[in-house]
Amino acid sequence: MSKYKKIIVAGPLVVEAVYPAPSPRDSNAVRAGKKRLSSEAQHRMNLQYCYQKLELEVAANFGVKDLYATFTYDDDHLPKTRKAAIARIQYFWRKLREARGVRGQEARYIYVTESKHGDGRLHHHVLLNSTGEDYALIQQLWRYGRVEYRQIRVDKEKNFETLARYLCKEQRETVGQRLWSTSRNLHKPEVETFRVPDDTSILPPPNAAIVFEDTGDRTTSYGHYRYIKFLAYGWRQQPKPKVKRTRKRKK
Q1: CA 10 to CA 186: how far, in whole Å?
Q2: Is residue 235 part of a domain?
Q3: Which residues of 8-43 are buried (b: 16+ CB within 10 A; e: fewer)?
């Protein structure tokens, strides 16, 4: 007998599940029971909600030393439409990439454009990798209003999930509209699924810094599944820069 194990690694954030794998020797009842447990576990891992997908993107690319910022507009520069606001921040990103490129630094970012809460003014929430010399440059390039900064917080109360939920709080205005936009150089979460022995269990490693309460554990007469999410050791470290791989030319 065996089980399936699925692991998603997004920077320091790790999500794991172990669930039953049907066997040709199973009776119809046992196969159906295992299938239900398997479906429940996979449902937890399939990232059906937008905030779950964003949570992994955030964790794979940003850490506690990086920036969460809100870009606002003053009265003289307030865009009349969402489209105009997006055009302005895209121009800002182009200038920031150019400025950092001269210094040999990359710009990784995620942002959302909002206008449905508070006083209804258009603004942008931004996640940006920090270089240690950001504030003056960003304020110089963002000439349309104020920029409020703080470092990304990661603990049991505030973490990648709570940040992703906050960034996804406004609903789509049209079908198919993305809730967030990103730079093209983001790291992608790594996903792996494989068979393991039937007696395999999963626990966070002893050196896991923060174990989230979002866990699942269910046992029936047909099998058992277990789901956990935790931050691995070293979660305070910065994500490593993305290295461009080049193919060697054949001689």
Answers
A1: 11
A2: no
A3: bbbbbbbbbbbbbbbeeebeeebbebbebbbeebee
**Within a domain: residue 9?**
no
- Which pTM value belongs to this model? 0.81
Q: Give the C-alpha separation, 87 to 103, whole Å.
A: 25
Q: Where in the sequence is the domain holding 86, given as residue range(s)?
A: 59-182
Asked if residue 121 lies in contact with residue 35, where contact means CB atoms within 8 angstroms, the answer is no
In sign, the C-alpha dihedral spanning 34, 40, 45, 47 is positive
Asked whether residue 218 is domain-assigned, the answer is: no
Alpha carbon of 3 to those of 131, 204, 235: distances in Å? Answer: 44, 18, 29
Among 37, 3, 40, residue whose Cα is nearest residue 18: 3
Question: What is the total count of domains within the chain?
Answer: 1
Residue 203 located in a structural domain: no
CATH number at residue 118: 3.30.70
Token pair 């121009």 is at which residue? 91
CA torsion sign, 188 to 127 to 162 to 151? positive
Pairing of strands 223-231, 216-220: antiparallel
Q: What is the pLDDT of residues 185-226, one digit of tens each?
A: 999 999 998 888 878 878 888 888 777 766 666 555 456 678
Asked if 113 contacts 85 with a C-beta cutoff of 8 angstroms, the reply is: yes
Distance of CA 217 to the CA centre of its chain: 24
Please answer whether residues 9 and 211 qualify as being in contact, where contact means their C-beta atoms are separated by less than 8 angstroms: no
